[in-house]
Amino acid sequence: MLSDSLKVFITVADKKNFSKAAKALNLTQPAISFQIQTLEQYYQTMLFDRVNRHVKLTEAGELLLEYALSMNDLQSQLERKMQQLTGHVKGTLMIGASRTVGEYIMPYIICAFKNEYTDVDITLEIYNTKHVEELVLSNHLDVGLVESQVKHDELMFQSILEDELVIVVPITHPWAEREEVTLDELAGEPFIIREPGSGSRLVFEQALIDAEFDVESLNIIMEIGNITAIKSAIISGLGISVMSKWAARDMVEGKMASIVRIKDLKMPRRFNILLNENHFESEACSHFIHYLAEADLEKILEQK
């Protein structure tokens, strides 16, 4: 097995910061420093240059990282072969998800997956779509789950679940009893929107452009990078917004908000698995991807 010191070293090299590495590994910063010092004493050389709060690999550090990553890949391959031989799936799985998928889809799916694969330890990290893409490319994540298709030569994606973007208004809003509104009506409403880089925002803006609607004419009063905060703003009457039907479900069921669709404008999309074609796929990751492809995900979500 890869030593704790090398695991810490790889994480510090990835995060370029001792505090961030400590947070990622759920360790204290002194514990991180001790592991790095142990390696530096063993190899009798500095592995990192410390510059303010950040660190940079030295030439020796670059060499060690190359071999440490190779050792880590070999260990993963060995574990997969042993699990194939014994039929017992275990290991760790680093999953990254964009905000809608991470907050409203993955907790339920991970729970169902864990019921079948109890010895797979899962970490779920939530970012916007752009950052998930970056972390999959850097091999920090085993698999990403995002709200839009990502175009990159080294990334593969596979659709797993249908979704639809809908307009959500407060239950006290004049539109709350309506099923549809026009694009012209939309332009006059105070609008709360996700941050740039959000998959939901990209899909929404592209749908407006395809409908030959001027995105700049939206009365955007606030950008918020957190769906829960957007929902609170809607409920308080601050404005209206657009979000996944899955994210809006609890608000509608709780009679705090209402869903409205835009006349003659459909906003379907699919949630996608995102994989780095150059990243070794562990047995745990392979079973997770197969589970996502074969399970009735809508049924799992509708039961919650």
UniProtKB/TrEMBL annotation:
InterPro entries membership: LysR-like_Sec_metab, LysR_HTH_N, LysR_subst-bd, WH-like_DNA-bd_sf, WH_DNA-bd_sf
Location of the HTH lysR-type domain: 1-58
Keyword annotations from UniProtKB, A to Z: DNA-binding, Transcription, Transcription regulation
Keyword Cell wall biogenesis/degradation: no
CDD domains: PBP2_CysL_like (cd08420)
Family matches, as Gene3D superfamilies: 3.40.190.290, Winged helix-like DNA-binding domain superfamily/Winged helix DNA-binding domain
TM regions (residue ranges): none
GO MF annotation list: DNA-binding transcription factor activity; transcription cis-regulatory region binding
Keyword flag DNA-binding: yes
SUPFAM superfamilies the record matches: Periplasmic binding protein-like II, Winged helix' DNA-binding domain
NCBIfam families the UniProt entry points to: LysR_Sec_metab
Protein family per UniProt: Belongs to the LysR transcriptional regulatory family.
PANTHER family: HTH-TYPE TRANSCRIPTIONAL REGULATOR, HTH-TYPE TRANSCRIPTIONAL REGULATOR CYSL
Protein name: DNA-binding transcriptional regulator, LysR family
